[in-house]
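Slides due. Your pick:
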Amino acid sequence: MARFFPRLFPVPSLLLGIWLGSWSFSWAAGEKPSAAPEPPKPASSAPPAGKKEPEAKTKSQAKETEEPALSGSPVVTFLPPEKAMALTRDVRDSIVSVTHSGRDGGTLGRGSGFVVDADGLIATNLHVIGEARPIQVELHDGSKYDVTEVHASDQHYDLALLRIDTKGKKLKPLPLGNSDAVSQGQPILGFGSPRGLKFSVVQGVISAIRTLDKDLTVDDNTPDFPMIQIAMPVEMGNSGGPIVDLDGRALGLVTIKSLVTENLGFAVPVSHLQKLIEAPNPVSIANWLNIGVLDPGRWQTLFGGSWRLKSGAIRADGEGSGFGGRSLCLSAKEVPTTPYEVAVQVRLDDEAGAAGLLFASDGGQKHYGFYPSGGQIRLTRFEGPDVYSWTILEQISSDAYKPKEWNALRVRVEDKKIFGYLNDEKIVEFEDDALRGGKVGLCQFRSTPAEFRGFRLGTSLQASALPEDLAKELGKGLTQPGFTSLNADQLLDKLVGQARAGRKAVEGKIAELEAQVAELRRFSERLHEREVQRRLVEVLGQPEEKIDLFEAGLLIAYLDNPELDLGASLEDFEALAAGARKVVDAKAPAPDQVHQLRNFLFDKSGFHGSRAEYYHRANSHLDAVLEDREGIPITLSAVFIELARRLGIPDVHGLPFPGHFLVSYSPKATKDHPAPDSIVIDAFNGGKILSRLESSELLLGYSGRLGLAEDYAPATAREIVVRMCRNLISIAMNEGDPKKARPTIDLVLAVSPEESEERFQRALLRFQEGDRSGAKEDIKWLLDKKPPGVRLDRLQELYETL
């Protein structure tokens, strides 16, 4: 995996080495900072000794390079027909066809797969099974089975394992080969359902093992890990089917095809499938069908289309069954009597489409719509199923509209009038009272891909104005230096004949204004950072038993992503908690409740440790952890701890082992006397219950010491938040972008000012930014506090030099 620097040491080497030469800073024994983010447990999660997982790359970094480690076994270039036929007879009973259904029950997508376990475990591609759709598997003998469980899934490698109930019938599994030992030119057979032609077979050869260049034209996203390049026809429906060697062993799963030539495809090596088999993250089909699905208690969809939840936003695509491709999504919120207001932010992928607000809906064909369409804003009254019953009341072109960006729509409904606002600018005032009452919600037309966030309903949603004196002060600052186009013609006349010099002067002014814009953007970012700091300090300032750990962790994600809809994510988490309340017996003893919650979160809901992208920032963002049901030890533990708090399960705490955070139920936990009846849960490894011996061995593996009483002391919410922040700081440092870590360092110091490590890092970053007075302030703090492990003499020299 990628190499991570210790949290303290990268900053001197990156920033001060140029200026301070051989100066160095070291930590005393016992105070060495742990490398973060937390690595997987070596014994159960990391690759075996001597092997290395493929290092994740961004698409921009992906290169089309052949791997040098192809096997040196003899290359076979010809497969006799009789051998191909015999191999087909041997393999075909293991091949399956996989379909998933659409909203109307018809087949929406089709692919292939193969049996990997006699009791009904099927391997295929994740993209074959769709999102939250019923899945069916057809065996070679024509028998069909509904999938009862998505036994495992991995988005990074596009793999899925499906469980079917064969009612005791034993299937013929296809053995897995060694994809690490394939040879260039090696003959293979491919099995699948090209264009729906089930149980087809084709010959081919392995061309190479390569990581794809991001510009290679393929029919899906470009993977960033080595794949098996195959020379054979690949069509829609082949996805998930196996390529097998001459011994009938699966070497890979056909995943993507070239859009340039028919005889070029790529397969995911089965080595990644083997990892999935060994560490599944099962989700029952009932829960699978609810992933990303809108809560029916909050939303009702009409006229088809696809409405799904993604990162706290609602995404609509697909063509509705209403005239013009109309599709509606009605809110269950109670609509106030007039006057009332409804608002949302909307972003269209295609400006030729249309999507926005609806109001005064009768729950069917009648309603108003206020939405962007073709770059303009429309106010329309719909009174039936066809264009003859629609009336466009207003169609406005407005400079306030920002194509392909988030636009804030707001409607005020009074007894006789309707007011429409675009990005807080009033653009519509129309007298019409044909429709009133009813429901409010969202609308989409012409299969327009659109996203909605921040849906609100109330008596008044207008943003509060700044005090007049503050508004004047801000306005003056934002308009200096100013520019006016008054008398522009006269100015142009004066510049005729001196165009080159005039343009040079104008370009200089442009550069000046761009610099001002950059400063304004930074001002906006700092305002956001300060607001996150204020809110997190407020959350952590409550009594420990009342701190909402999910909200606290969510604010860390909000710092990174100002577009995150906090309210929607909190509602999603509460929906998860509501599901947990249904299975956790409120009257059971606390230890039983802990086991019930563990079963709900990991066995039934599919929360699991991140295997392929352990060091991805999303694993430290609780909104993404909740959405993907995937994270690292501390974030998965935070989800468990907060669910326990909301369900009233007492004495559930974080166990802050170095390198691998755990959950502990410890009713009498103290620093000196850990409870003998404690339960220790490894949230990263499927909620595994650890014995005291196992937890001690885990601690020994990471820290080199046996467990002490202090190691089993519960972590406070503040300590958990600081540790989550440190994961993100280390990721930024490892990416070679220490400036990206600055907001998170500031956040740590806002909630925990005594953290000397972050204080030192910020001093060095301030120095790099040219803020010498800020750097001196932080170094003076360190000199006054004298934290252990810091070379105070060298620090004093740095202070005096500044």
Observations:
- The longest strand covers residues 200-211.
- Confidence is low (pLDDT under 50) at residues 1-77, 483-488.
- The chain is about 30% helix and 25% strand.
